[in-house]
Amino acid sequence: MRIIKTKDYQDMSRKAANIISAQVIAKPDCVLGLATGSTPIGTYKVLVERYQKGDLDFSGVKTVNLDEYRGLTHDNDQSYYYFMMHNLFGQVNIPLENTHVPDGTEPDAKKACDDYEAVVENMGGIDLQLLGLGHNGHIGFNEPADEFPKATHCVDLTESTIKANARFFEKIEDVPTQAYTMGIGTIMKAKKILLVASGKDKAEIVKKAFCGPILPQVPASILQLHPDVTIVVDEEAGALL
Ligand code: GLP
């Protein structure tokens, strides 16, 4: 596990974007696993700037996103599909048919999740998976549990996650209580993993996840077992390392 400590959010975003850019340049038809949340927004911004300058080409890239709220439609501005369109897909030359986000509108949870697991598998594996980190150590929407969930599944969001994500919704009752998420097994199959974390409210969980014991109660701690993980933190998030 490589830990890169950066100065601030901007520096973190640039360093994370460097790693993604290197992947796209080295393998123009790579499969990128993508994440939502506020942390990777700056990373996407740098990638868009590089595309606009002509330094990056997404025409051959394929993507699979980690997760989606159950029940939100594509045009809901809180859906992860909408987030990705707004922050990346709509701003670069990636063919939309090459992008994949779990279908939050599929009411049959088992079907939505099995179909998505098959999509990831049929792409031949993820070359580089980008991850954020929840305050309780969740990755994707894999919440603390008694065991590590393997494949894409439907998850009941914890109260702390619902509260943390409420800032994006008008009222807390609007926050979906369930999501479809890649499993820990799906994530761990990626060839390379890049996790970004920023801000002092993440310092405690960064230390717990990457310096503490590997436990399903701290889902991100499993990354310690992956052979190729890079963690990019800003000074505040890395303060306790
Ligand atoms: C959500 C997402 C995660 C993300 C986490 C942290 O719950 N499902 O993928 O990593 O939030 O978000 P933030 O980066 O806004 O702290």
Question: How would you describe this structure in keywords?
Answer:
single chain; 241 residues; alpha/beta; seven-stranded parallel β-sheet; three-stranded antiparallel β-sheet; 10 strands; binds 2-amino-2-deoxy-6-O-phosphono-alpha-D-glucopyranose
What does this structure look like?
With 241 residues, this protein is of the alpha/beta class. It is built from 7 helices and 10 strands. Strands 1-10-9-6-2-3-5 form a 7-stranded parallel β-sheet, with helices on one face. It has a 3-stranded antiparallel β-sheet with strand order 4-8-7, covered by helices on one side. Helix 1 crosses helix 2. The longest helix is centred in the N-terminal third of the chain and has 18 residues. It starts with a strand and ends in a 7-residue tail after the last strand. The model has no long low-confidence stretch (mean pLDDT 96). 2-amino-2-deoxy-6-O-phosphono-alpha-D-glucopyranose binds next to helix 5.
